[in-house]
Amino acid sequence: MSDRYDTGMSVRRSVLGDAHVDRAEAAKTEYDLPFQTLITESAWGTVWASDGIARRERSMLTLALLAAMGNFEEIPMHIRAATRTGASRSDIMEAFQHVAVYCGVPKANHAIKLAKQTWAELDQGEDS
């Protein structure tokens, strides 16, 4: 694999945690291998690896964008990731406030519901 892939895998593990990445890697097939390589190199090896902004801010941006676009499936994963990047629960709620004003209350409301569910799981020790 490329240096960008190796960097991406390192950043991915740092942000998402080994348990999550190990599960994703185990589920990889020949059909989604090109996609997995693409996201590892581009999302993780380029965007998340950039030192242009801190990972805390990247987490907040990612959560706001996911909510704004209605891509709710990945919100719990990125709520968990935020615990590793330094974005606090208050930071995340501020990001969702922006979503409410600029993209719609229903999207923010659903994102907040998912965040609260995920935080409850984390508080009970379900961290993977």
UniProtKB/TrEMBL annotation:
PANTHER family: 4-CARBOXYMUCONOLACTONE DECARBOXYLASE FAMILY PROTEIN, CARBOXYMUCONOLACTONE DECARBOXYLASE-LIKE DOMAIN-CONTAINING PROTEIN
Protein name: 4-carboxymuconolactone decarboxylase
The organism's place on the tree of life at top rank: Bacteria
GO molecular function, one term: peroxiredoxin activity
Species annotation: Salipiger bermudensis (strain DSM 26914 / JCM 13377 / KCTC 12554 / HTCC2601)
The Carboxymuconolactone decarboxylase-like domain, residue ranges: 35-116
